[in-house]
Fold this sequence. Notes:
The structure holds two protein chains of two kinds. Chain A is α/β, with parallel strands linked by helices. Chain A has two domains: 4-234, 3-Layer(aba) Sandwich (Rossmann fold); 251-493, Rossmann fold (3-Layer(aba) Sandwich), CATH 3.40.50.300. Chain A is built from 16 helices and 23 strands. In chain A, strands 13, 16, 19, 20, 21, 22 and 23 form a seven-stranded mixed sheet that branches. A six-stranded mixed sheet of chain A has the order 6-7-8-3-9-10, sandwiched between helices. The model of chain A is unreliable at 498-507 (pLDDT under 50). Chain B is mostly helical. Chain B has one domain (3-122, 141-289): Orthogonal Bundle (ABC transporter involved in vitamin B12 uptake, BtuC). Helix content of chain B is 70%, strand content 2%. Chain B is built from twelve helices and two strands; from the N terminus they run ααααβαβααααααα. Chain B has a two-stranded antiparallel ribbon. At the A-B interface, α2 and α3 of A face α7 and α8 of B. Chain A: InterPro entries: AAA+_ATPase, ABC_carbohydrate_import_ATPase, ABC_transporter-like_ATP-bd, ABC_transporter-like_CS, P-loop_NTPase. Chain A: This is Nucleoside ABC transporter ATP-binding protein.
Amino acid sequence: MTDVLLRLEGLTKAYPGVVANDDVSFDIREGEIHALLGENGAGKSTLVKMIYGLVKPDSGTMTLRGAAFEPAEPRAARAAGVAMVFQHFSLFDALSVAENVALGMENPPKPRDLARQIRDVSETYGLPLDPGRTVGTLSAGERQRVEIIRCLLQNPRLLIMDEPTSVLTPQEVEILFETLRKLASEGTAILYISHKLEEIRSLCDHATVLRLGKKVATCTPADATARELAEMMVGASFETPQKAERPLGEVMLDVRGLSLPAPGAYGTPLREISFQVRAGEILGLGGVAGNGQDELLAALSGERVTAADVIRLRDRPIGTMGPTERRALGVLSGPEERLGHAAAPDMSLTENAVLTGARRMGLLSGGFVNWTKSKGFAEDVIQSFDVRTPGPGTAARALSGGNLQKYVIGREVLQSPEVLVVNQPTWGVDAAAAAAIRQALLNLAAKGAALVVISQDLDELMEVSDRFGALNEGRLSEIRPVDGLTVDEIGLMMGGAHDMEVAHVDG
Amino acid sequence: MDLSSINPVLLIASVMVSATPILLAAIGEMVVEKSGVLNLGVEGMMITGAVVGFAVAVSATSPGLGFVAAAIAGALLSLAFGLLTQYLLSNQVATGLGLTLVGLGLSSLIGKPYEGMKTPTLSKFEIPLLSDLPILGDMLFSHDVMVYFSLLLVAAVWAFLKYTRAGLILRAVGEGHDSAHALGYKVTQIRILAILFGGACAGLGGAYLSLVRVPQWTEGMTAGAGWIALAIVVFASWRAGRVAVGAYLFGGVTVLQLNLQAAGADVPVALLSASPYLITILVLVIISARGVHGAPASLGRPFHASH
């Protein structure tokens, strides 16, 4: 048995209207990798913010190596040996790697020494990084290395990692895990936050499960199945979506040589993308964020137009049509950003229903909106997709992320599309709701629609799709049947590990 | 037209005098914008500095005290902007425009009794040895102390932003206030300090107009100098060196067109008067058309440390 590094006792933090953490207690031992599991909104982030000094607990105590630990600000936490790698990177695009590292340190050395130290640490842990590069030009995986190296340079006792793998390819994840195992073997404790259960099972020594702000279980993840862990998080059992055998019909959507320039300074150009989707088929498109997903959705939905022949629906050229015309023909879409792209935040659910469903659901008559019918349609969506809301008059902004996601996907599904393109359909949605959305997509395909599901969640793509392709820098990889596809192959399709090498774990 | 009436030594010397107020205001505003705040009230802070500096210099018969008072007045006015935008989260554009209107109104109120009065002005500070050089000495090294101060300030701001840790933190706050907050930097406090610096610089710039350049108080005497300072910051891509180039270019064309007017050039007067604005913007647009623009990523976005 090793010593306790950090002990949390009865930590409680309430915000107006919600108790984010309610009497949470657990221990983190020296050199262990401790998982913190929970759904969105379970209180994981608040808990680590308290440990890192960003939020003050209302009550409860923390003890670091036997001494009281009450960091008033991150600086104090860092001085005590607590370092944190953020979920949303805390990096500055316009500054160099070295400057970014210096900003995260208490007493940074002179620039020249710092550059040397960055090189040393990055070599020791197999995380190659050039101190002079501007961070804005780095890939997501490389940015994370900047964060990790920034932490490592301070020789932390406890390293907190908040959802570190959501932006990495499988190969990069493996390298990260090697690094973390090496760190743990050197005595650094790691608090690892994630909701990816397989990762936690392979990496972590212990797990603490939070639900609605309360600690509900502690376990050894390797001894539990992913399903058991998921049920601890959700607090109930739920149905895993079932893929039904279904016959494939004619080619519905045919994309040939789709190329578009980047929409803005930080966009991705689309390069020669070609694929076909048949009736009853789901094509899953993976890839690390920012490799052309948004741009592809915009091209398919009609937000950006192309030459007519590039995109065909049942052999009819639709490339020059805008979103309204495509919708009328049955090509619907659900973009990633819920607020502001899929839904107008300050408009009611009924009004949002009219925005995409007006034509197909016959909500217009003579240029006027039939509000009775529109309200009926909105109520239909709310009912069929179990959207928790007081009613269709509620503003879209007032719904929680998961509920709004169910609403915007349901709104498209109920319009019986011929082709449906969705990007990140279950992003930020809890496991039970995600399962419901996936089932709805599968059912839609079973009724004969052709679906393109773009997602960064590989498990989701494996669950719903028949064929899989990956986007990498605006190019589409070869498309392969999902059955028999291995994680390694998927990783290579996604572009591999971007010049990374596995950490040299010293014997 | 009689071009021989233009004396090149006097021309260059007056270019430096003419550029100084804009240079001071622009370098201050650049620091403000580097911290991620857009303060459109430069014109208002300049003219307030001009009138307060003039009033104090006349009353105390000391131009030095006038400059100090002008800096304080500009900083106080900017503090109002800072409190409104940083703590009460008011809209930066609207508040900045309001600040300009307040400054213009306030200055004409304060300045009414001082119209037509004379002020003691800064004496020439002749740099030993260098000022004895033929031609160059009179051109570059026989100015009042504020001209040198403004140039030293540009160099100091450049070095501060590039080499010091505080400068790095200031840039970081302007690049990503959420990231800076997550790392534990006090975004609001840092921005307030930058806003105060910008206000003080604008006040000094205004006082230079009323105490040295003109030297007199007339209502609305800044005549858009604050706006041109704002434009210079943007077109100079937020770089200290280019800000200086822009300010001197504007000052240069202003003086040159005045000389051309005096020499009776055969160009419409309206076009000559507009030429400093047109040429400065044109040149800076051409400079900034190439390469990165480098606007601070958080520029003008309100920050609130919500959880």
